[in-house]
Design goal:
The chain is of the alpha/beta class. The chain contains 13 helices and 9 strands. It has a 5-stranded mixed β-sheet. A two-stranded antiparallel sheet has the order 1-2. The radius of gyration is 22 Å and the shape is globular.
């Protein structure tokens, strides 16, 4: 599927506009049996000239719909209605397409759009297979991908969610987890969104579990790399030995408590990168024995950083694992210590660009 998508998408190739009939106007309201209609137009917010639905208001309306199946349908209709309004705002060349749980808003030619939708759908299926006995596909909502034609529209939209970010560095796309989670990218960077999709679909399939952030992110990074292998490191890149030295220099007793609590993933310095890498390494080692790892994941809880589940199902103490990786002597200071944490532990699935 990756090869098919890459063969269809050539950034410098001019795409011919698909001839389509005039589309009906977007819905002004969404209906659900037994409930008052939800006004879409009255709940649209401005995102630098582009419409964003008030998802808090939508959620409040959906909560009043009777029955889980009806609520799921109502939420899905809110998603579609918002995307139809966004389609109109972006211009007449944009089209909204659907395949199973995937929705795509773009100007991509039909064959490229279909391949993109198939990639999202197939990736979800592969995540479920890889995370055998652990993954659970959410019953609500779609996997939404918005492909903007150019950088201006993309950054104008993204700036709504990150108003204090100022100038954005080059981005291959991101997942925006705000009310209604969705992927965004630019047409020229379509291939770069693939690992982001794999990573975030993994998080979605783990969202039913109270696991700690390091486990959540470690599983997501390993699954992402398995489905979308990164390019081989260049000669100028960081070697594994250099990365190991960075870990040894950075992690101390205080920093490791941030790791176990998930707070280190929110750092804005190198601790952010090193947190994801340390989580990747630990999960890669634990996941080699899948049956035991599955039992561990299903039992792990963020409240103790997964310590009791690791001892019970893996027969290891997390502090000993980390101290060995860092080539430090065994000590209780490396183990999760919730009493030393500041605030509630994080569960992961952090938005990133």
């Amino acid at each position: 599927m990756l090869k098919l998508l890459r063969s269809l998408v050539k950034p410098k190739q001019l795409a011919t506009t698909e001839a389509v009939a005039a589309l009906p106007p977007p819905p002004v309201a969404v209906s659900a049996e037994g409930s008052d209609d939800f006004s879409v137009t009255e709940n649209l917010l401005g995102a630098n000239g582009l419409p964003v639905l008030n998802w808090d208001a939508a959620q409040q309306w959906v909560d009043g719909v009777e029955g889980e199946a009806a609520q799921a349908r109502a939420w899905s209709e809110c998603e579609r209605a918002w995307l139809e309004h966004l389609r109109v705002a972006l211009g007449p060349e944009y089209r909204l397409r659907e395949l199973d749980t995937a929705l795509l808003l773009s100007t991509l030619e039909k064959n490229v759009a279909e391949a993109t939708l198939a990639f999202v759908d197939k990736t979800l299926q592969r995540v479920v297979r890889i995370l055998d006995g652990v993954a659970h596909v959410p019953e609500w909502g779609h996997d939404i991908l918005i492909v903007f034609d150019d950088d201006d529209a993309y950054y104008k939209y993204v700036a709504h969610y990150y108003p204090e970010a100022g100038e954005f560095a080059g981005s291959g796309g991101m997942y925006i987890n705000a009310g209604c989670g969705h992927f965004v990218t630019v047409k020229a960077d379509l291939r770069a969104i693939e690992p982001v999709i794999a990573h975030e679909l993994t998080h979605a399939c783990l969202s039913h579990l109270p696991i700690p952030a390091w486990l959540n992110e470690g599983i997501a990074v390993n699954t992402e790399r398995r489905l979308c292998p990164p390019p081989p490191p260049s000669s100028a890149g960081t070697t594994p030995q250099q990365m190991h030295a960075r870990h040894q220099k950075f992690w101390g007793p205080g920093e490791i408590q941030q790791f176990w609590s998930g707070k280190s993933f929110l750092r804005t310095d190198e601790g952010n990168e090193l947190s994801y890498d340390l989580a990747r390494i630990i999960v890669s080692q634990f996941g080699a024995a899948w049956d035991r790892f599955r039992s561990f994941v299903l039992s792990a809880n963020a409240e103790d950083g997964g310590a009791s589940a690791a001892a019970e199902h893996l027969g290891v103490h997390l502090g000993d694992v980390v101290s060995a990786l860092l080539e430090q002597g065994p000590s209780a200071q490396w183990a999760p210590n919730p009493a030393a944490w500041i605030g509630a532990p994080e569960r992961g699935a952090f938005s990133a660009g």
